[in-house]
Amino acid sequence: MSRTVRPVPKAPVRIVHLGLGAFHRSHQAWYTQHAGDAPDWGIAAFTGRRPDAAASLSGQDGLYTVVERGDEGDTFEVVGSIVEAVDGADIGRLAGLIAAPGTAVVTLTITEAAYGLRADGRLDPKDPGVADDLQQLKAGPDGMPTTPVGRLVNALAARQAAGAGPLAVVCCDNLSHNGTVARNAVVGMAEAWDPRLAAWIDANVSFVSTSVDRITPRTTDADVEAVTAACGYRDNSPVVAEPFRNWVLSGDFPAGRPRWEDAGAVFVDDIEPYENRKLWLLNGAHSLLAYLGQLRGHTTVAEALADPACLAAVERFWDEAEANLSGAAADGADLQIPAYRVQLLARFRNARIAHHLTQIAMDGSTKLRMRAVPVLAAEREAGRTGEGAAGMIAAWVAFCGAATQEGQAIQDPLAGDIAAACALPGPDRVRALVALLNEPLSQDGGTVELVATLAAGFVRQEAQA
Ligand code: CS2
């Protein structure tokens, strides 16, 4: 067992993170701990959807165990790079830290759905969170923005006022062009509040794009017990993750950054090929398994992949994705797609990682826009049916239909629209659901028909099971 404990004294806060959850702790915090200059880079992490995570971590001085769970067994490491864990509602502390000249980097894992953007990538002023936060920001010092983007914009205004200089915002959510998405959200909200702040952000804040990867299921009570048994101490907030990890980054760090490359992070000029490889092959297969697997009665990724029908659907989608992926990076580096696929199957088959399909199924409308739509659109453009990508959308359509019929809530930012679409008769229902993912595809009669036929097949299979 390897145990690395935080150097004493605590590293100074130079990174502020929004979205303190399991993935941040198994990924960016792990990389920061393993950077050669780790003693100079402490993280202050603010909670998002789980405010209790701050209290739990603070109770153990920010320290927690990363359980690296391989096929063969577990290894344990204490990570100490998070030096402050704060309830996200504490916008005063957030503004204070972001206004501090020593703060150089802001990292984000706020979920794909939290950027409040329309399908065209611009700020959606009708998004309830965006609309409410704009009112809060306009209310001045008494305002209490509640979305991560609203809170960040509020804090950047404090940095502008303090004259603390430039910094980098590093988006670590699974979105295509995630740096641009973050920029659109932050600058869009600033523009609607105070155009001078928007101009300052444009001139001083760089938005770094990244592709992040490490399978990190939700921690269970059994995981807590396993750490107690193996390590002899009680950790209320361990994180379980697969041994594999990957971080590709592209962009400027005007105020510096940790030497994450010492821990294996890779810095590139053009991130798109890496981003598409990961989003389409890994995340795409995940979403397909989440919907088709649940329809076929499976609970975890490993279980679903052991079902030949699910595996065949994944392979069909991967063949299409691969046909539309560039096999080389801008510098000519071979992206080794066939080997990447083989490695992914092994990662998914790690049965010691219980990665629940319900966790992946959340926020499907946002995820499928990035995971299925680009492949389907490219296939249609090439004059092919796109049956593999259509199959992922069909599995989602069938899943939404079944959940609605059974009266189960769908966790999705568009849950209301999904419910309204599911109430429509057959062909209209499929068209309306596809339109929530991509309007032009919903106008393509062949695609809608294919999705409808595939979705009907998925439902029938479940009924027979
Ligand atoms: C998953 C991802 O929940 C999901 O949507 O596809 O969280 C996935 O596990 C990570 O991106 C792996 O790096």
From TrEMBL:
Reaction equation(s) it catalyzes: D-mannitol 1-phosphate + NAD(+) = beta-D-fructose 6-phosphate + NADH + H(+)
Keywords carried by this UniProt record: NAD, Oxidoreductase
Pfam families: Mannitol_dh (PF01232), Mannitol_dh_C (PF08125)
Domain Mannitol dehydrogenase C-terminal positions: 270-449
Keyword Cell wall biogenesis/degradation: no
GO molecular function: mannitol-1-phosphate 5-dehydrogenase activity
Transmembrane segments: none
EC assignment: 1.1.1.17
Keyword Lipid metabolism: no
InterPro entries in alphabetical order: 6-PGluconate_DH-like_C_sf, 6PGD_dom2, Mannitol_DH, Mannitol_DH/Oxidoreductase, Mannitol_DH_C, Mannitol_DH_CS, Mannitol_DH_N, NAD(P)-bd_dom_sf
Name of the protein in question: Mannitol-1-phosphate 5-dehydrogenase
Biological process according to GO: mannitol metabolic process
Domain Mannitol dehydrogenase N-terminal intervals: 14-261
Family listed: Belongs to the mannitol dehydrogenase family.
